[in-house]
Write a structure and sequence with these properties.
The complex is a heterodimer of chains A (257) and B (287).
Chain A: E1 7-16, E2 19-29, E3 34-38, H1 45-52, E4 60-65, H2 75-83, E5 85-88, H3 100-105, H4 114-122, H5 126-138, H6 154-167, E6 172-176, H7 184-201, E7 204-209, H8 212-218, E8 221-226, E9 229-235, H9 241-248
Chain B: H1 13-31, H2 43-55, H3 75-107, H4 110-114, H5 120-142, H6 145-156, H7 160-185, H8 189-196, H9 201-235, H10 243-252, H11 256-282
Classes of the chains: A alpha/beta (257), B mainly alpha (287).
Chain lengths: 257, 287
């Protein structure tokens, strides 16, 4: 069993290209928590997840991941930190020219050197094949092990992306709009699967979502972001409908109908 | 929305560049004093031209000259041997060119320096390394293979190495330039995702970027191989034992039928490579 990651943000602000994207974020996500990030487009959900996966360093304030500040960590510590945080990307970020199993094997690159990584990708051992098959099976597509990624449907590719994150065996899983481009039934399946996997393996889970229904149904804690600030941070049963109306209300100058 | 707008021209600098290029073409035409009359041969040469053209329909199947040495191999074997040597020269040159093209292409690509070449040392070398690689590539490409051949002939004489290296140098430059551009144009999402899960730079480059450019790189390499076969044939005019040497000799003796036999052999070679690379591009023979 993995033990989940603890994320802590203190006064975090982020500027990208001179524009403020996030301001004054104070958040703690405890190990093993499942949290939905909600908010309109441009609220800063993606940027927040980027900070948690060490893709962006905050311009102000401090972020710690299991007590370690990635901004001051050594290259080795940073690499170890990254190998412990898995991500599922909206557009999957797979290599289409590789087979399903090879895209899953990539998951362990963070713990492998160059030669070991290349060896596992092109000459996988039986033990590795068994493990990859097991995670693909877990996400429901075990039979597609050797399928070229170009021949997979969008839903299947998403499952390969989730399998890659599982094979990575991370302590936290971050998913940025994982269901923004799939139909509602599949969206529900995917979110249910992510929450189930996080519970099963004790991973901390953060998912950014547009769909409020999905967020309410599957997550015990919701963080509402708007204009780069935390609008609310509540247990799901404390969130009333007016909260969402406020969160998604269009600025008056934009002149909605 | 109600806010006003300012009209902006849709035809800008790019259209001007295209027009200027067309204009240059017209000016060059007049500068050279080209007229369509030049395309008609004068009567004295007309006979030669006609003889050469009609020979296209009657390629030789045997030696046309009067004095064929008794020890000479059958004609078709001479054609086959010259064709084979042409391919061997081209392949030898391309072998070196692909190695050089891969190494220089990596050093000239921004994405290599961003991934595999990153790190404290790479960060310091990058500004110099990237420019040095691109200048080297430009230098290799700016001299044509036939000029290199003349230089190497002077230095090494008619040796197989001279021919292969003359082909290898400019082709390494062209391959490096195109490889680096192809790798830099590939989508970066997968390689970035690898970095986010802790993969080292070399893995990000070799597994996240290279596979995505591989098919295009292979396709361009085949095209260059085709070009190098033609170049190897032309090297024959400088004395290297390829199809060009045979063509020059037959042409000088007025044996136009033989010339066409050699030309058809060259066309067959190029078509064969084209068919092979088309199969590769369609993905049927991949894996």
């Amino acid at each position: 069993m993995n033990l989940g990651t603890r994320f802590e943000l203190a006064g975090v602000g982020l500027e990208l290209g001179g524009n403020p994207v996030l301001e004054g974020l104070d958040l703690v996500v405890e190990p093993g928590e499942c949290v939905a990030l909600v908010g309109p487009s441009g609220a800063g959900k993606t940027s927040l997840l980027q900070i948690l996966s060490t893709g962006h360093a905050p311009t102000r304030g401090r972020v710690t991941i299991d007590g370690i500040d990635p901004a001051t960590a050594s290259a080795e510590v940073l690499r170890e930190l990254r190998s412990n945080v898995g991500s599922v990307h909206q557009h999957h970020a797979l290599v289409p020219e590789l087979r399903a199993l090879q895209n899953v094997l990539v998951g362990r690159f963070g713990r492998q050197g160059t030669l070991a990584g290349l060896r596992s990708l092109y000459l996988p051992r039986r033990r590795e094949l068994r493990e990859v098959h097991a995670v693909l099976d877990r996400v429901g597509i075990g039979e597609l092990l050797y399928r070229p990624t170009t021949q997979l449907s969008g839903g299947e590719r998403q499952r390969v992306a989730i399998a890659r994150a599982l094979y990575q065996a991370p302590r936290a899983l971050l998913a940025d709009e994982p269901v923004a481009s799939v139909d509602p039934a599949r969206a529900r399946d995917t979110i249910a699967l992510l929450v189930e996997l996080a519970r099963e393996r004790g991973m901390t889970l953060l998912v950014s979502l547009h769909d409020l229904r999905l967020a309410l149904d599957h997550f015990p804690r919701l963080i509402g972001l708007r204009n780069g600030r935390v609008e609310f941070d509540l247990a799901t049963d404390e969130v009333g409908p007016s909260r969402f109306d406020d969160l998604y209300r269009l600025p008056r100058t934009a002149g909605g109908t | 929305m109600s806010a006003g707008f300012t009209a902006r021209p849709l035809l800008g600098r790019r259209s001007a560049t295209v027009l200027a290029a067309l204009g240059l073409g017209v000016i060059a035409w007049f500068q050279l004093g080209l007229t369509l009359d030049d395309l008609l041969p004068d009567p004295a040469r007309g006979a030669t031209a006609r003889a050469f053209a009609t020979a296209a329909l009657h390629p030789a199947f045997d030696y046309q000259g009067d004095f064929v040495p008794a020890a000479a191999p059958p004609f078709w074997r001479g054609v086959a041997a010259a064709a084979l040597r042409t391919v061997v020269f081209a392949a030898g040159g391309m072998f070196l060119a692909v190695i050089g093209g891969l190494v220089l292409g990596m050093l000239a690509s921004a994405s290599w320096w961003r991934t595999a070449g990153a790190g404290p040392l790479g960060g310091r070398l990058r500004p110099v390394g990237l420019v040095a690689a691109r200048v080297t590539i430009a230098g290799l490409r700016s001299v044509h293979e036939l000029l290199w051949a003349v230089l190497f002939l002077a230095a090494l004489g008619v040796s197989p190495a001279a021919g292969a290296i003359a082909i290898a140098i400019p082709y390494a430059g062209t391959l490096a330039k195109v490889f680096s551009e192809q790798v830099d144009e590939v989508p970066r999402d997968a390689s970035r995702a690898m970095g986010a899960l802790g993969a080292g730079g070399t893995l990000q480059f070799t597994c996240g970027l290279l596979p995505r450019a591989a098919r295009q790189m292979a396709s361009f390499t085949f095209y260059q191989f085709e070009c190098s076969v033609r170049a190897a044939a032309v090297l024959g005019f400088f004395g290297f034992p390829t199809l060009g040497q045979k063509i020059a000799a037959s042409f000088a003796n007025g044996n136009y039928g033989e010339v066409w036999s050699y030309l058809y052999a060259l066309i067959a070679l190029v078509l064969t490579i084209e068919m092979w690379s088309a199969r590769l591009r369609s993905g049927r023979s991949v894996r």
